[in-house]
Design brief:
This protein is α/β, with parallel strands linked by helices. It has a seven-stranded mixed beta sheet. The radius of gyration is 37 Å and the shape is elongated.
Length: about 300
């Protein structure tokens, strides 16, 4: 042991005073409140976390629901109501799968996409003047005639559908088999340079009649080419139907007010309303095979005016 260094002495602690009963009770009350505060803080944190998770799940669910609704609207979107616009076309056709009606596309051929309005379980316009027939029967008949004419003239042709017979493997309970979104997506996947949709019209006033040619114009862009292309069909229909009570009309549809098929294909597109099934004269013509052939030839001529070399 070093004689120069005193031995270690523990620090002196004054003796603790014994708490009185009242002081002890106050201390216990303090400790109890402190524990409660800690518990409340933990509960508040857990509650906030739970609410955050619930809110996140709700927001995701709402977003998915709206996305589903938009997809449904895109798939089943209809054209203008006959109560508000005499240029109504009804709900466009839907099928099971795209069908090509021409041999494989040759590089020097021009491919045209023909879209007969309605089809399969979607009849389109049904009026007393059409009897047992509906719009889908007429548009398909004209579409097939047009296909044959274009093939004979050297074009390559694809059709959104070339039959109205529902396939045996069609999903049970599914109303539409090839809707607007699928139809336009199919057209965009082909090498078609032009998209022609054929429809019949209806209106509450049976005196309204005649054919109409619709195209989409984009605000702020040069729409000269598509306007001229649509006008070609008006001119061809006028020549094909010189005795028509009403001359064909050109109808411009600006921006997003245009029909779905016009604004969702990537190639130039025109929608032709061949007549009004709600008008007795137009309906009688629409049922006449010779008149259908004239319309098909006029549509082929309109395509020639825009694309023939």
């Amino acid at each position: 042991m070093n004689p120069q260094r005193p031995p270690y002495q523990p620090p002196h602690r004054p003796p603790q005073r014994k708490l009185t009963r009242e002081e002890w009770m106050r201390r216990q009350e303090y400790l109890r409140r402190k524990k409660q505060q800690q518990l409340h803080r933990r509960l508040a944190i857990l509650t906030f976390a739970a609410l955050f998770v619930i809110l996140t799940v709700v927001l995701i669910s709402v977003a998915l629901h709206r996305s589903g609704q938009q997809t449904s609207l895109d798939t089943n979107e209809t054209t203008l109501s006959p109560q508000t616009d005499p240029e109504n076309t009804g709900t466009p056709v839907q099928t099971t799968a795209p069908q090509t009606t021409a041999p494989p596309t040759i590089s020097d051929k021009i491919t045209i996409c023909i879209d007969p309005g309605h089809g399969y379980d979607d009849p389109g316009a049904t009026t007393e003047y059409l009897g047992d027939y509906t719009e889908k029967d007429i548009t398909l008949s004209i579409g097939l005639k047009l296909r044959d004419l274009l093939l004979a003239r050297g074009y390559s042709v694809v059709m959104t559908h070339d039959t109205n017979d529902i396939p045996d493997d069609a999903p049970v309970g599914e109303q539409y088999l090839f809707g607007l979104a699928k139809r336009t997506a199919y057209a965009n996947q082909t090498d078609a340079v032009f998209y022609l949709s054929i429809h019949g019209d209806t209106f509450e006033d049976s005196s309204v009649q005649g054919s109409r040619v619709y195209f989409q114009s984009i605000t702020g862009e040069d729409n000269t080419a598509i306007t001229r292309l649509a006008q070609n069909f008006v001119d061809a229909l006028t020549l094909a139907l010189p005795d028509a009570p009403k001359a064909p009309l050109l109808k411009e549809m600006p921006d997003d007010s245009a029909y779905y098929v016009l604004r969702n294909v990537t190639m130039p597109a025109v929608l032709v309303e061949i007549g009004f099934a709600s008008n007795p004269t137009d309906a009688a013509n629409m049922l006449d095979d010779a008149w259908q052939q004239k319309i098909a030839e006029a549509l082929a001529d309109g395509i020639d005016r825009g694309f023939a070399k």
